[in-house]
Specification:
The chain is an alpha/beta fold. It folds into five domains: about 10-195, no CATH class; about 205-345, Rossmann fold (3-Layer(aba) Sandwich), CATH 3.40.50.300; about 350-410, no CATH class; about 425-590, P-loop containing nucleotide triphosphate hydrolases (Rossmann fold); about 595-670. It has a six-stranded mixed beta sheet. A six-stranded mixed beta sheet has the order 9-11-12-13-10-14. A two-stranded antiparallel ribbon has the order 1-2. Helix 13 (about 280-295) links the parallel strand 5 (about 270-275) and strand 6 (about 300-305). Helix 11 crosses helix 12 and helix 27 (about 595-610) packs across helix 29 (about 620-630).
């Protein structure tokens, strides 16, 4: 915005202290110029009879053409016009003043700049309100109006304000609802006024959903900041706007990476949490965010599932916008952008160990085994580690508890946390199954360090997770074994019911599965998928679209299971229905048979001893031995029978007897249409 040709520049000694002072001086000069004309009209009207004055009003004595002709011949008016133009030229020549920057950034036309200046002047100097009222012929109106600005700046009765113009689009001016027959009073938006006065704060209208972010830490290993910044800078130099997607779980460092990237590009950062945007105010918020970015040269990062709404504006409005997404969010490619996508890397156990020591320096005195356990057992992100450290504790037990609570919250309603009160002593399994379970547990403990070895990852780029298929009849200990595995590993156990995950609506199952595995990958826990046959059953012949999508869901789940980096257990009562292609991909297949008599006897003894006492167990030993060898029961059936017997004995007010056990067992078997194969006296049937 260069000065108009032929206009003399202002000597440095006469230069105003700021752009706002120049605006004020210019508008005052324009007001005095207008006042010369109004005084002329008033003097002419005072010397005429009342009838003539009415005639002059009807003849439009205050016509713009008449005013222009008078001022062109008035030496004082010409002097004021030159003064006003000199101030305007100074404003437009100063590259550092914020008024010029605002006009260029928001694309204001010359008439809009003039209107803005008239409104600004009364905001800077409230004494002008009385002047504006007098110049408008409305002594009671103190606010600037469009007609007043048009007359002051030489536009006659021309329009300076349009609902489709830049002033309205960028919410620079606010217009009151006018009274009938009057013009709307105009005010400068408070944030715009603050900006022009030198303020650098965030727009108060955005405080509920936005925050400014500056880089406060060095980039972590694996963050390609310099490479990304170089490509973005090259795109900007070509005039191509950039859009960067930062993908990862909450607290994985996405906002920190966005801040570091912005700082590398020498740009402040504004982060918008779209979850906190009032749906009714989206257009207003988006406009004000972009306005903030344009005025301060900011980058913008839209965070949350509605991040794409922030990008609905025209490409190229800002040189750099970012989206902070979770792994399950999709953002379609867009034409006209240079695009970057970065998946936040999972921290290695060594990186987590270093971060725990960085954020909690006193952890250096912990035993190495505790520090290693914390780093290996909890897949904490950098943000989660910082959050735990911010709680102010340096006790290992408390830090571990806080880390575990953060991990538990990641699956939300997608899974159910299962209590794990059992130990290996509660499992009564065949020797070969117990041995296989021990091997599974050993690998589960050692797997984290093993898969961090480069040679192991090279040979097995996928399939670093540990998957176990547990098959067998109901009640044979599959769920208890999963609880024992989680307890032995010191991890939480989450149950996911695959039957409820399968959606009757075509294509929805894959979305549900993706959400489950994406969230689960962010935590170090044991996952138990109940009713695995609901999705891992044999492929069906394709007869309709539902069959086709069912097979596609099975294929998709196979891929998700192979890519899953954690420990997962899949339980089924229907091994024969499972897809063989899936079974071949599982390294651990644990079959839980119905217990044999020796195992049944051990279960009877343990349950009676724990629920009724050791004395009752010793007294009933012979009867329990007969039951164990006579009745083919599962562990769950024995457990329910003993529980019923204990309550029956309490109801009778005595110690448990074999009659109570028989009665409890009869009730359990009757649920399945069976009866005792021995009589009440203990003899054969």
């Amino acid at each position: 915005m260069a000065a108009a040709p032929g206009v003399l520049t202002m000597p440095a000694s006469e230069a105003p202290a700021s752009a706002l002072e120049a605006v004020l001086a210019r508008v005052r000069a324009l007001c005095r110029r207008r006042l010369l004309w109004l005084e002329r009209l008033e003097s002419e009207a005072a010397s005429e009879p009342a009838g003539n004055r009415l005639h002059r009003a009807l003849c439009d004595a205050d016509a713009p053409e008449a005013e222009r002709a008078f001022l062109a011949k008035n030496a004082k008016a010409e002097e004021l016009a030159r003064l006003a133009e000199r101030y305007q030229s100074w404003i437009l020549e100063q590259t550092s003043n914020r008024l010029r920057r605002l006009a260029e950034a928001l694309g204001l036309e010359r008439p809009e700049i003039d209107l803005l200046q008239v409104c600004l002047a009364s905001s800077v100097d409230p004494a002008l309100a009385e002047v504006y009222g007098a110049l408008s012929g409305l002594a009671g109106r103190a606010a600037p109006t469009e007609p007043l600005a048009a007359r002051l700046c030489g536009y006659g009765r021309g329009a300076l304000w349009s609902p489709a113009g830049a002033l309205a689009r960028w919410q620079v001016l606010e217009a009151d609802e006018p009274a009938p027959g009057e013009s709307a009073a105009l005010r400068v938006d408070p944030y715009v006024l603050s900006y022009l006065q030198g303020g650098s704060e965030l727009d108060p209208e955005l405080l509920t959903c936005c925050s400014s972010r500056r880089a406060s830490e060095q980039p972590l290993e694996g963050w390609p900041v310099d490479e990304m910044a170089g490509r973005i800078a090259a795109a900007v130099a070509r005039g191509v706007p950039s859009r960067v997607q930062l993908v990862g779980p909450p607290l994985s460092g996405r906002r920190s990476l966005a801040a570091v990237l912005s700082a590398t590009l020498e740009s402040p950062l504004v982060i918008v949490d779209t979850a906190r945007v009032d749906p009714a105010l989206w257009d207003k918020v988006r406009t004000r965010v972009h306005r903030q970015a344009l005025l301060h040269g900011c980058s913008v990062a839209w965070m949350g599932s509605d991040a794409r709404r922030g990008l609905d504006a025209e490409p190229g409005l800002l040189p750099l916008e970012m989206t902070i997404l979770e792994s399950t969010d999709d953002l379609a490619p867009a034409i006209g952008w240079h695009e970057e996508r970065f998946q936040m890397p999972r921290l290695s156990s060594a990186q987590r160990r270093a971060l725990w020591l960085l954020f909690i320096p006193s952890a250096r005195v912990w035993p190495e085994e505790q520090l290693r356990s914390l780093a290996e057992r909890f897949a904490a992100t950098v943000g989660e580690i910082a959050h735990v450290a911010a709680q102010g504790t340096d006790r290992y037990e408390e830090v571990r508890r806080l880390a575990r609570e953060l991990s538990r919250g990641k699956l939300g309603e997608l899974a159910t946390l299962v209590d794990c009160p059992f130990s290996r002593d509660d499992l009564h399994l065949p020797a070969d199954l117990r041995k296989l379970l021990d091997e599974f547990l050993f690998e589960a403990r050692e797997r984290v360090r093993f898969w961090e070895r480069p040679e192991a990852r090279r040979l097995f780029p996928r399939g670093v997770g540990l998957i176990g298929l547990m098959a067998g009849p109901p009640g044979t200990g599959k769920t208890m074994a999963a609880q024992v595995i989680a307890a032995e590993l010191g991890l939480d156990l989450f149950r996911i019911d695959l039957a409820s995950t399968v959606n009757k609506y075509i294509g929805e199952t894959a979305k549900n599965l993706r959400r489950v595995f994406a969230r689960a990958a962010e935590m170090n826990a044991v996952l138990l998928f109940d009713e695995a046959d609901a999705l891992f059953s044999k492929r069906t012949d394709v007869r309709d679209s539902h069959d086709r999508y069912a097979n596609a869901d099975t294929n998709y789940l196979l891929q998700l299971v192979e890519d899953y980096p954690g420990v997962a257990l899949l339980a089924t009562n229907k091994r024969q229905n499972l897809d063989e292609a899936f079974v071949r991909r599982v390294r651990y297949v644990l079959y839980f048979p119905r217990p044999e008599p020796p195992q049944r006897l051990a279960i009877w003894r343990q349950l009676v001893s724990e629920l009724a006492g050791a004395e009752a167990a010793a007294r009933l030993e012979e009867d329990l031995h007969k039951l164990a060898y006579a009745e083919a029961l599962t562990g769950a059936q024995i457990k329910n029978a003993v529980l019923a017997a204990v309550f029956l004995a309490q109801q009778a007010g005595r110690a448990p007897a074999i009659e109570d056990v028989h009665r409890g067992l009869e009730r359990e078997l009757s649920n399945q249409g069976r009866s005792l194969s021995i009589d009440r006296s203990g003899g054969g049937a």
